[in-house]
Design brief:
- The protein is α/β, with parallel strands linked by helices.
- It contains twelve helices and eleven strands.
- The strands form four sheets. A five-stranded parallel sheet has the order 2-1-3-8-11. The protein has a two-stranded antiparallel ribbon with strand order 4-5. It has a two-stranded antiparallel ribbon with strand order 6-7.
- Helix 3 runs parallel beside helix 11 and helix 4 packs parallel to helix 9.
Amino acid sequence: MRNICYKLKLLAVVFFSTILSIVIVELALNILDIPKTTISGWTKCRSSDKCNQLHFRGQQIQYRPDDFVTVLIGDSLVAALSLNDEHLPERRLEQHLTGFKDKVKVFTLGTSGYGQDQQYLSLKKYFEKYRADLVLLLFSAQTDVTDNTFPVSGANNTPKPTFWLVQGELRGPTEGWLEKVKTRVKLLLLWQRYGGTTIGTQRNQLWEEHILPPPYQPMTEYKQAVDYSWHETWKTNPDKAYKGIEQEKVGPAGQFTPRSQRRQYGIDLTRKLIFRIKSLAESHGGRFIIFKEERPWEFEDGDQEKVYFLNGRYYKTSIKQYQKNLKDIFEGFENYRIPLHIDNYKVSKEDMHLNRDAIEILMKQLANIISKKPYFHD
């Protein structure tokens, strides 16, 4: 009996010593912030002389009471990282608008990887301190729906404040813009990090399993004409080329036909977010316009379907389907699709962003549209 009591006491000492050690280690990890607390979202601009007050690339947010203030929201297209400061979209739009009205200011909210979710949250932050007479959304047809659909961005699965749909109703965000992600115990996070699992990868898995409907299902057989260019590109870099195509995470997914349940979900979610942006702008006395550039390939024969082979699967694409997707997104919102009637519109063969000449055409035509609005001259 005495031996049993001794063993129980020893077991209790070991148990409570272990718990105490875990608590001490957990406290130390919290004090040292190991692993480092994850911030939800990003701004990327770090150069104080080239960033505005919300840490986006662009001029300082400063205006006079009688200035016509325009806010340009978007993603990497508005950040235009390949262009010099004087050729930024905000600078060129402001310059063209001053040809119609003396007192105009244009400011930028947006950077790489931003969909309408991050644009809405950053605009909400902007309105806490500043005003806008007009909010312009530069829509990125190749990426915005995808960026809205998933809770992470980029190859590193960076987490972001994310909205989602429940029976067609908007829910979220998961947390506030640039807020800390709520995490469990640091020891568990450290163990998961050691095993290669991050908060971003966990969220992505959660969305795939419980939030998102099925993605596009490619064909396993196809007997007619096939384009093998995707497969040839994939063979040169199988670890990166078309990575995420199974989840509809690549640009061509916007042309997959027929439209998948996941693409329909993304379109519905995007429309809800655009409506949030519009309502936010109008609640602060501003107007709202969507615009996008029309690249030469978008004018190709819409009735012609094309099938691509990639790693044992056949993907059917259609310009007509792509245009139908855009039509359904923009319906009911004031929107303008501005054609770029130039062949050389990209920064380079590898960089699909708009170059200096394309930005100039886009902003000049946009300024002409805005100049005809009665509220621009009030």
